[in-house]
Design brief:
Heat Shock Protein 90, Helix Hairpins, Beta-Lactamase, binds adenosine-5'-diphosphate, five-stranded antiparallel sheet, elongated, single chain, alpha+beta, 3 domains
């Protein structure tokens, strides 16, 4: 190489170093944690935020397995997002709370491909969500306290209106009866909202107690249905039970499973027009009981089905008193079933009807 060539070579080398340095500086100035790992879970690159958050030097992070560095484990976590990305080569978002890291993180895992399109690992962007979590906790605490405090005055208002409607303090005329009845219906609705809010906040904060005993699901459903018969007759709809000959025993909290079934029957009745049918089937399936609540009602649009078990979702609500719910019922139903180790799914055809099918394990 002549001196001119040596100079050009040096200049090119410096340019490469400058680009690498600029890239590292940019990488380090990202306040979120960013790291790259290969298909063997080895962290190949990480930015400064990663070392600061973990309080570890670069040589204790780079070249090591992510589950050792992040989780102090000797094998990947059961819900490892990289494992999922390896399987489907898609983006995954997970929330991780590990005392080893110290702060809750929301991690976006994106697959990484080489020039030939070969999957070679994943890029992770992790964001500190402790602030959001704290706000959520404060919000839940607030909802729970307010709901609790509202219960007593609400029951006193309801009691007072009932006394007036029963004409204990004196006679009332038709106009007054109409207004008082409207007031009582709305107090009932408010009480339902408050109870649902309390239920969901207890479930979400893990404060709900599930007291499991051996429950004969057929007799439980029979008892519940007896309480519904009058209402169905009044509304001109039919309720039919289809029970297996042999009893099916499940391991469950009697009151909570009653709440689930009452909620599903109440919805089936609410969304089924006059002369419609609601059928309840109980089946003894492997390891559990399968309950199906089917109606010949309005049905649910395909695009609404994924949102069904989310809080405050209501679709195609009918007008009129009693028909309005809180949009919390199915969220509560799903969580209660899952707390029992069971699951729930829905099948629906518009204008034909809807089936909610859930299973509860025997043990
Ligand atoms: P709500 O208290 O409003 O009934 P839910 O969570 O129980 O709340 O139900 C959410 C929404 O799902 C309802 O508003 C309704 O649109 C729909 N839905 C629930 N059950 C049925 C059903 N059996 N048939 C048709 N739509 C239903």
């Amino acid at each position: 190489m002549n001196s001119k060539e040596i100079k050009a070579h040096k200049k090119a080398k410096q340019a490469i170093l400058d680009v690498a340095e600029e890239w590292q500086r940019t990488f380090d100035s990202i306040s979120d944690i960013v790291f790259i790992q290969d298909t063997n879970f080895i962290i190949t690159r990480a930015n400064k935020a990663m070392f600061t958050t973990l309080k570890k030097k670069a040589n204790k992070v780079i070249g090591r397995k992510c589950y050792e560095v992040l989780h102090n484990r000797d094998k990947p976590c059961p819900n490892c997002a990289l494992k999922k990305a390896v399987l489907d080569k898609k983006k995954h978002i997970i929330e991780v709370e590990d005392p080893n890291i110290g702060i809750p993180l929301s991690i976006i895992v994106s697959p990484l491909f080489d020039k030939e399109g070969e999957f070679i690992g994943s890029v992770h962007i992790a964001r500190d969500i402790s602030e959001g979590k704290k706000i959520d906790e404060i919000k839940d605490e607030f909802v729970s306290t307010v709901s609790h405090e509202l219960r007593t005055p609400l029951s006193i208002i309801k009691e007072s209106i009932s006394l007036l409607l029963d004409e204990l303090p004196g006679k009332i005329n038709d106009g007054q009866r109409k207004i008082l009845t409207m007031g009582r219906n709305n107090v009932d609705r408010l009480a339902r909202i408050v109870n649902d809010l309390l239920d969901i906040s207890k479930i979400e904060s893990g404060k709900i107690g599930i007291k499991k005993t051996i429950v004969n699901i057929s007799s439980l459903i029979k008892d519940i249905c007896e309480n519904w018969i009058l209402e169905f007759d009044k509304e001109n709809r039919e309720l039919t039970l289809h029970l297996p000959k042999a009893p099916v025993d499940i391991h469950a909290d009697y009151d909570r499973i009653s709440e689930v079934i009452n909620n599903l029957i109440s919805n089936a009745l609410k969304f089924t027009p006059e002369k419609g049918h609601v059928d309840i089937y109980v089946k003894d399936v492997k390891d559990g009981a399968e309950v199906t609540i089917t109606d010949t009602g309005v049905g649910i649009l395909k695009e609404d089905i994924p949102k069904l078990f989310t809080k405050f979702q209501q679709f195609g609500r009918r007008v009129g008193p009693g028909a309005k719910g809180t949009g919390l019922g199915l969220a509560i139903v799903k969580q209660l079933i899952e707390l029992h180790g069971g699951n729930i799914r829905v099948e629906s055809n518009i204008k034909k009807g809807t089936s909610f099918i859930f299973t509860i394990p025997k043990k």
